[in-house]
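REQUEST ID: PR-0412
SUBMITTED BY: lab tech R.K.
PRIORITY: routine
TASK: structure prediction, single protein chain
INPUT:
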Amino acid sequence: MAQRRMLSKQITETDMFMDMPLSSQALYLHLIMNADDDGFISNAKTILRMAGASNDDLKLLIAKQFILSFDDGITVVKDWRIHNYIRKDRYHRTIYDNHLSELNVRENGSYQRNSSDDSSGMTSGIPNVSRMDTEVRLGKGRLELGKVSVRKAISPKEENNTEDDPKINLNPSKKKNENDPYTFYQQNIGVMNPVTSDSITMWLDDFTKQGTPTRDEASQIINLAITKASDQGVRKWAYVNGILKDWSIHNLVTLANIKASDQERETKKNNKPRNGQPKRRQLWTNNSFSDDDLPF
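STATUS: complete
OUTPUT:
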């Protein structure tokens, strides 16, 4: 597989592409960098986590048909052949021949699904890099063609109803999973690297196995730890990880238990004298004695 990839401004500088969130644009670039020589990707969700993107970013790319997906999780970059041309002596055919046979190459170089079992329009391999087609041309006809294809995929009526569809969310700012810890971390701590992403996934699994009722509540627990770190001004994953480790050791695996523990700690803190000495118990009051009790 080639180690260098190219991008065509014919795709990445269209209004349709630029209107997407930066996280979706970045995910698209990472998918291209990790695709095989026919544009197929077998680990889109792993790349998603590495790029610090969310599931909604991937769904948006699929909804806008920058990415085509298959039932088994394999994805392919629709405009792969517009972006990349690989010399025949360096080209390695994809191992996903079954999916490749389901696609045709349009005249403009983009993939489209077969309308029937006839795959006669599918060409083998990638055209030689010496062809003049490598001079990507940005034309009005191409842009209009792209708009028409998306309109056919998602009508205006369907687009208005996508917010109620858990599978498609064209507006990532209105996410169904507001407790997504990956996004919450980037909003409150900073850029997420692959190690941090894997650690969050590990904690989600660990809390769920340890007794947290739902995975969503496990996400809220991680977000609570992130909030505590942010409130303390410590924007490091190591600090968040330490909080989660402390809760796990003490078997605080539900939000109710964690909040109860915090309340108990706060009560003890408020009852502790400021000088650090325990309060002396007053054994008597002014009304404890009368004149008759005096020895004189």
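NOTES: Residues 117-160, 162-176 have pLDDT under 50 and may be disordered.
REVIEWED BY: pending
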